[in-house]
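Hi Q.,

Before the meeting this afternoon, I wanted you to have the iron/sulfur cluster prediction in hand. No need to reply - just skim if you have a minute. The sequence and ligand are here:
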Amino acid sequence: MDRASVKPGLGTPLPIVPAATEGAPARPTPLPPPPPRFAVARRLVQGGVLALLVLAPFLDLLRFDLVAGVLVLAGHRLHPGVDLWAVYGIVLVGLLWVFGGALIHGRLWCGWLCPQTLASEMATKLEGKVLGKGRAAKRGPARALAYGGTVVAGAAFLAAAAVNYFLVPAQRLAPPQAAWVGFGVLTALIAADLLFVRHTFCLRACPYGVLLQLVQDPKTMRVGMADEDRAICMNCKACDRACFMDVSPRDRDRRTEAACLLCGLCVDACDRVFAKRGREGILHLRFPAGKPGWPTWLSRIGLSDARRLGLALVTLGVAVGAVLVMRSREGVSVTVRPRYDDSRLTAEGAVENVFDVTVSNGEETARGFDVAVDGLPGVVVRTGGRIEVPASGRVTARVALELPAGAAPPTAGAHPVRLRLVGPDGATVLEKSASFFVPGKARPR
Ligand code: SF4
Ligand code: SF4
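Predicted structure with the ligand bound:
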């Protein structure tokens, strides 16, 4: 009997392991199986993002108060019409990060932060567990029903989380009819996506993928191997099997680069393969090197040329500006618009001017103000002298000023005045400059 074929057991000799021949390279010592670092880190990030997305409206981090026409952001109540710069800055930062960032970090957003990716992966896993794969997939209607029901329940959960962004706290236990309609439509769309579309959407329809094909260049973050490592690739395809986007990280064609979500699962798979050979894998997720002479530390964080550095600085600048504008904004703000067509000099010699005074109250309690005017001797508030604004509300009042007949008439033309909002304690809360216009000709009332 061939001694090498004897199975080890009680009373049988151990198989003979040929001794290393002198001069021949020693076999590498296998490493313990490496932890799936990208898989673990990614699940933690995805779980955190999902929790944040669900909790954000409850914590007033982000929600849309459609009743008051207010955007609630990090506890600040922003009126898009009044706090235009803050809202514009925040939207711009989001667009710069999501779309401009595609140049720097490719589809990293899709692989690590996008809820569609997480939900699709969960649905695929659930399908494998409940229905099985291949021939085992025919497991009967009961399992198909269980799978479909679980997916629809998950879709309903995501739809409820999305609708919650548009409800005020008092509506959460008794949502209006429109919210139920939105919930139903969203549940159907998400369920259809998770049952029939999933990652095909990311591959074929996601506008972000299309945009990426337009903006990415050789310095965009990518997964791949160094040219010198290609020779030691064992073509085991463990990396291909790990990829849920159905691309091979060893390819460098445009399809791969546009489809790869930079999840790093293929890197984990390759690390496992090479651990048996006593070394780390040959696939890496990283930013390519910057141009010669460019600071290495900047290249390591993806800012490998002036274009990327400029984009990052602009995004940072806009973000800082938006935060400063938000922090410096008043709880109450006012805008004054003159209604020139309503300015008149009456036959009796009085001058009237009408203004639209819009007061926004970003505070949680209602506020009331008296309107006062100064800056032009004799001018008084004739009508609209009291403005009440509900909590988180905005009111536009028509305020008429009058320079009575008998007051020393100013010359025709515009005269500066100050409109003041006076609080209950008699103190001026806000004031705005305006022009009191004196027409050249008298017009009847
Ligand atoms: S190629 Fe690798 S990093 Fe890219 S999606 Fe597939 S598994 Fe993830
Ligand atoms: S897992 Fe690593 S060794 Fe195997 S095919 Fe992929 S790159 Fe090559």
